[in-house]
Specification:
Layout: H1 14-20, E1 29-30, E2 34-38, E3 46-52, H2 67-83, E4 90-93, E5 109-113
Antiparallel strand pairs: 1-2, 2-3, 3-5, 4-5
GO molecular function, one term: catalytic activity
Pfam families: HIT
Protein name: Histidine triad nucleotide-binding protein
Length: about 120
């Protein structure tokens, strides 16, 4: 898989600091495109964040050139879900923008599992 063009990390971005190793995180998954680690405010028995190494502020800022990266995030989520033994199911959430509930301006997936997920969310 081809790596994505690099975009400068944001010096004030919490997730960029985690990618750089400036802020520690319990990395449960890592590959050339992304990192997975537990959410500090879990909303389910399993609640992990999957962040791209490349800084993209949100899905609203994603472009066609990010297609491979976006696909790798979903693939990583599936790998992590298998490793976490979420065979009964799980939810992948991407919050975008203030009204979407995004609190860190760095694209990230929430992988939630370990309990029944209700619908509709929010």
């Amino acid at each position: 898989m081809k790596t994505q063009p690099s975009h400068p990390a944001s010096s004030d971005c919490l997730f960029c600091k985690i990618v750089a190793g400036d802020i520690p995180a319990n990395r449960v998954y890592e590959d050339e495109f992304c990192i997975g680690f537990p959410d500090i405010n879990p909303q389910a028995p399993t609640h992990l964040l999957i962040i791209p190494r490349q800084h993209i502020a949100s899905t609203a800022k994603a472009e066609a050139e990010h297609s491979a990266l976006l696909g790798s995030l979903m693939s990583a989520a599936a790998k992590i879900a298998r490793a976490e033994k979420l065979s009964k199911g799980y939810r992948i959430v991407v919050n975008t923008g203030e009204d979407g509930g995004q609190t860190v301006n760095h694209l990230h997936l929430h992988l939630l599992g370990g309990r029944h997920m209700n619908w509709p969310p929010g």
